[in-house]
Specification:
The chain has about 350 residues and is an alpha+beta fold. Helix content is about 40%, strand content about 20%. Helix 5 crosses helix 6 and helix 7 packs across helix 8.
Amino acid sequence: MIQTDQNQIREFADKRSKRAEAILQKGEPQLLDEFTYLVPSQFDSSKKYKVTHIDAYSCECQDFERRCKGKGLYCKHIKAILLFEKLKTSYEVEEKIKPEIELIIEKPLNDCCPYCSSKNIIKFGTRKTQIGEKQRFNCKDCQKKFVLSPIKNIKGNAKLVCLAMDCYYKGLSYRDIADQFKQFYGLDLHHETIRRWVLRFVKVMEKYSKTIQPKNVTNIWHADETMVRTKKGNRKVGADYEYKWNVMDKGTQFLLASEVSGHTRSKKDAQKVMTEAYRQNGKIPYQIITDKLPSYQDGIRKTFRNWGNERKVKHTSILGRRKQINNNAIENHHTHQKEFEKIRRGINETQTY
């Protein structure tokens, strides 16, 4: 009986996917705001359905209300949005990669020889590689021949590495990135090559990101915590999850702090992330918006000495979604974060990803 029900669910899901493709063939969905789309009806062109995505997808059609809501299923309109966003991402990646792949470095990056630091260099043919040709140079002083590149000992150039990492952090897997390069540009890159690029240069990016100082930040912060699935531990309930705390500036949506506290949500954990956000921002905020977790109140008090008649920070704790004051900005950040984790079925090290 259970097997029959699963087969029926799978059959309905396949039908909805085909209908979603038919909907997209008639035209693109209309974007109303950051969280809302208008999807045209499959049969009645004058009728449209509103699809929203904040914490989860929802649709106002009868199929979603009767058969999908609360069951983890998607109607054809939601599937159309998912397919549209996937195709849109692939198109953006293609448009961005195409001119970069065709680019060949025509002049030295630092205008000097890497051996003797002489600037008396000229072009000296090209070097053929599996990903294309690289410009070679000859030094007239030491007679050395070389290829100038900001990144050494890799199968590719700096542009290709940056594009691969950009695709990875937009949600594509290693194999998806390798498949993109192979299908459209004839570049035969193994997915392990891309994985090594990510592992190598993510450390460089992490060090650089910590030196960035946000500009034009507002005095209002959003703070929230979310559960991050890890690949460590056993499969007991809660054993393979850790809590990740994030603090974001409201105006610029700059992530001021991100800390992992393991399996706890104590006031010390809240104080730690607030201290890091204060260090990054350099000044005390006017208001911090959080949920009703009691740890935030104690963490904010101890970090900013926020007690008595000298309250320096206005702490607004909310429950649910309110129209005037809400925590939607950081909730949306967590939504994208969970989509990133879902493709990878968890992560190994929450501190550095």
